[in-house]
Amino acid sequence: MIDVAGLVPGASEGRGLGNKFLDDLRHADVLIHIVDSSGTTDENGKATKGYDPTNDIEWLRSEIHAWIFNNLNKKWDAIVRRHIATKSTSANTFQTQLSGYGTSKEIIVESLGGDYGKTPLKDWTSDFLYDFVFKFIDVRFPTVIALNKIDHPDSDTNITRIIKYYTSANKKSMSNNPSEESKDKIMVHGVDPDRIVLTSALSECYLKLLAKQNYIIYNTGDEDFISLEDDPSLSDRLVSFDNNVADELERIRDLVLYRYFSTGTQQAIIKAVETLNMIPVYPVKKIPTILPNSSPEDFSKVNGEKSIFRDVILVKSGTTVKQFAEILGDDFAKNFNGAESIGGLQLGEDDVIVPGKNNVISIKTKYSSIKTSSKAPTKPSN
């Protein structure tokens, strides 16, 4: 996860830290766009009142679009000539041209769905290319909108308006395209209402700080915290705090936790991972002794040691065991000799990894098999 440089309107033309922001973007799989829902900061980050946060959502996408479209459009004639001369497919041509944006062939093929894949490149107009770039960035840069500062008194109105706008706009678009979009949801301005998350980052920071100082018991994502006032029996673990801290904690409870059931920060990250349709896989050297019907989350300690699963790797849903071995490294892929999961479950290279079933994996290699054989007891001679 990276925290990219701030963006201001005109970034695609080099204004502010735009060039660095757009360069950072190339390395991202998904974006979490943190929007000040209180309307107390404008598009340049300056303090104000009554600002419409919807503007921030709109112009971020516009800046990314301008960055890519301008680069393509200024050399479009040359791109088409080369495309025809080399007899390339549209997917191959765009893969070459858009590779600098960290794309893949899979993303290009998805972006070329519908009329974009049916129309020869020589017949593409500037407007057609313009629309295609919007389709491409919606696929390449899926975005979670984190409406922040939900505890601010001016946020309620803005949050309601934003959610209502994108929800109703998406419903209208689907009703206008019933046959073409019967399976896939249309996103208006690149925003999927299901990817809007309400957050209070400041509340999260405050709660984590107090938990670190033993004022409260709190873990990111919890619906509530526990203080000494809540449970006096925890005097051996927690310390008391003054009225100022008590008032702030009560405010966070009333305006954030009781209303939204969390600060939303963990939910934003979870939503980002879900957006990519990724699953967690836990690579281990040796399968620990765990009941076959237990999940990795059920076990935090084995033999008194904390966190038996030291590593976790996120992979695309549908990834096979052999593909996971390739992710781990060339040695695992070239010398792959099977795999094992919890309960002694033996896995083949074409087995699909499924969370809660076989996503704790010990990859076997030819070398490990040789090593095991060399340690096997030999038959005593007569």
Structure description:
This protein has 14 helices and twelve strands. It is α/β, with parallel strands linked by helices. It folds into three domains: 11-198, Helicase, Ruva Protein, domain 3; 201-267, no CATH class; 277-375, Roll (Ubiquitin-like (UB roll)), CATH 3.10.20.30. It is flat and about 80 Å long. The chain starts with 17 loop residues before the first helix and ends in a 7-residue tail after the last helix. The model is unreliable at 179-185, 298-307 and 370-382 (pLDDT under 50).
Query: What would CATH call the architecture of the largest domain?
Result: Orthogonal Bundle
Strand content: 5-15%
Considering DSSP H and I runs of 4 or more, what fraction of the residues is helical? 40-55%
Average pLDDT over all residues: 84
Number of helical regions: 14
Widest sheet, order of strands: 9-6-12-10-11
The largest sheet, given as strand count, sense and whether it forms a barrel, is:
5 strands, mixed
Protein name: Putative GTP-binding protein
Pfam family, one: YGR210-like_G4
GO molecular function, one term: ATP hydrolysis activity
InterPro entries: Beta-grasp_dom_sf (IPR012675), G_OBG (IPR031167), GTP-bd (IPR006073), P-loop_NTPase (IPR027417), YGR210-like_G4 (IPR013646)
